[in-house]
Structure formats: C-alpha cells, structure tokens
Amino acid sequence: MGSSDGLSLGIGEGGVGLGPERTAGTGPERIRKRIPRNAPSLWNLAHKDVDTLFHDGRLSVSDLYGNGFNSPAEEWLPQGLKSVLAAQALFPMTSDHEMAGHPGENEIAGAVKERIDLAWPIIAKRVRGVPEYGRLFVDAFDHIEAPEEVTIVEIGNAIAAFIGTEFRNHDSAFDAYLQGDAAALNAQQTRGMELFYSVGCSGCHAGPLMTDNGFHAIGLPQFGPGRTRKWDPVPRDVGRMGETDRLEDAYKFRTPSLRNVALTAPYGHNGAMPTLEAMVRHHADPMKSQEDWQPAMANLRPAPWIAQTDFIIREDRIEMARQLAVNELDLPPLTDRDIADIVAFLHCLTGRSAGDRPLGVPDTVPSGLPVD
Fold first, then answer.
1. Where do the domains of the chain lie, and which CATH numbers do they carry?
2. Is the C or the N end of the chain the one with fewer CB within 10 Å?
3. What is the distance between the alpha carbons of residues 45 and 355, in angstroms, rounded to a whole number?
4. Has this prediction a pTM greater than 0.90?
5. What's the longest Cα–Cα distance across the chain?
6. Dihedral, 41, 44, 50, 51 alpha carbons, nearest 10
7. 266: preceding bond cis by omega (within 30 degrees)
8. Three-class SS of residue 52?
9. What's the start-to-end Cα distance of the chain, in Å?
10. Which among 86, 108, 88 is positioned nearest to 96, based on CA atoms?
11. How far apart are CA 158 and CA 153, in angstroms?
C-alpha cells in the first residue's frame, strides 16, 4: 500500500484488519470517528529538507519550547528526540481515535486526558519490560546500560531510524534520466515531464523530494469529520489556519512529496481523489472537479452509525464557497492528452526498488503481539 493504508480516511482505534480491507469494528469497541485526514506516506521522511510534518504543519523544527520542536505537546515534549520524524512518532500514541483509545478504556487514554505527556512513560515501561526489547535497546544506544533506562525518547528515535532507512528510495526512472540516461523515459513520459515543468506543477512540486514543503489551498472537495477546532460549528477542516490562527492560512495544506506517488492513492489531505488522473484534472480545473465530484469517489469503509456525518459539510454552501474562494491553482488549459502525459511522468517517479524494502515485515516481534 505504498506505506499508507489505501483509504481516504483511516480507521484507527477500534478497527479490525489491515489497509483497504480494515473494518470499523463492532460493538462497544467500534470506532467513534473516522481519522479526519488521509494517512500520509513515509517515503524519504529522513531527508534533510524535511523539517515539518502533518498536513497542517503542526509539528516543526523550532526552538520555541526549548526542546527542539514546535508541537502539540509544547513544553511537554521530552528532550533528546533526534529528528522531526522521531518527534512525530510519539503523537499517534496520544490520539484517542488513532491509537490511545478513549478515557475509561485503558490507562493510556486516561493518562493522555490528564496531560499529553503522561502516557509516554507508561508505554516506555511496557516496551522495556519485554526482555528482548530491553536487550535490543541496550545494544542499540550507547548511553543505555540497562533496560530500565529506556524512555519514550529512545523509542521515538528507534522508530524514526527504521522509517528513515526502510522508506528511503530514490532510484526511479526519473532519477536515471537526471543522471544522464536519456533513454530512461519514453516519448510520452518525456512530454509529460516537459509539461510538468512548463505549466506550473513544479512551482509547488520542486526540489529533490518534489515538494516546496509549503502550504497551499487547492480547493479539494471536503467531507468527513474534519480536524475541527473546539469552536468550529461544523465538521470542517481549515488546514494550516488551525495551527497558525492566521486567516491567510485558511484551507491550506502541506505540499506532499511526489516520490512514489503512484503507489499512494487516494490523494489529497482527505483522500478525495481516487487516482492520479483525477488529481491532475483537479489541479487543471478545480471548479469543474468540485462540480463533478461524487461521494462514491471517496474510499470510506462502511460505518453506518457515523455515516450521517460523512458528507454533511457538503450541504453547507457558504462553507463550500469559502473554500473555493481561496483556491490558489491557476494552471493553463490542459487537454486529455496533456493530462495522460503528466500522469505517465508521475509514474516515472516510482523507485525501481520501491517494492523491495531492506527489512520488510518481520514474521514475529519480541512482544509476541500479532503482526498484520
């Protein structure tokens, strides 16, 4: 699944199964809410240019709180995390809908309710209490001499080390072309590349990761619960503005990297577009894309008890107009052939070894928990 889950909006705590086949669960343990945003891919997140994560950029390298990061944990984020990727690894553990669960269900959820950092020592104690994990951490970290010294910091750094190496990939046909192999791209792919750089796509998708790491409003169709703020009257998602509180950031989302993009459908901060072609067509004509978009294009797993809220935001004409009004996309007209050629070029960004990861999925893990 290209390091994502193949769904528009994920199924978190309470769900059963893996990826596109994951279900929303049953009985009292079933999900209470969809994950508000599409699960981003993990490709090349250890690259030196990556200093901001999450669709709204709410985690970034910063000296604001004295711990190296501006994050939702503010001053409660621990010292010693080696990268923004290590810091990011801590936050799904504290999200009730992603991993933590809800107060009253377990001690992690209860601790998070009190303060975001109170769950991390509980998790670290569980990990270091597994003898094999304890030994592995002592072997891996020079400053750890005994398992009881392992904290959430070492756990975050270890997860980041895995993601940063396992999902490093830069051996695409486009890379070969840039290194001088003119035959690496066929005629259609070459024309798509020329269009990509001439019509304006590279204005946002530039550099080695093919992203400016910036934030842009592109008017994607809205649906789902949205990542709402406590004062939002509707299930909307204001994007970057939710982090900065600046009106000029309304409905802006972080530009994703395009490396291995053909592997990571659906597309957009909420997975609104099921295919690369649909996403390119949206960029070419966002107004028509909005008009043509249908709820069936969203890959949502059945959950009848929350389905009434899945598309309710689309009935709010004022909110829909508000989102389109800040759209930044302004590409010249593209023909069907142009779009097909650009899509062909985007497929050239898939690494030749993308499907062959160095470590892969283990048969077992030290805790004895099942491996999906």
1. 45-166 (no CATH), 173-347 (1.10.760.10)
2. C
3. 17
4. yes
5. 64
6. 70
7. yes
8. strand
9. 13
10. 108
11. 9
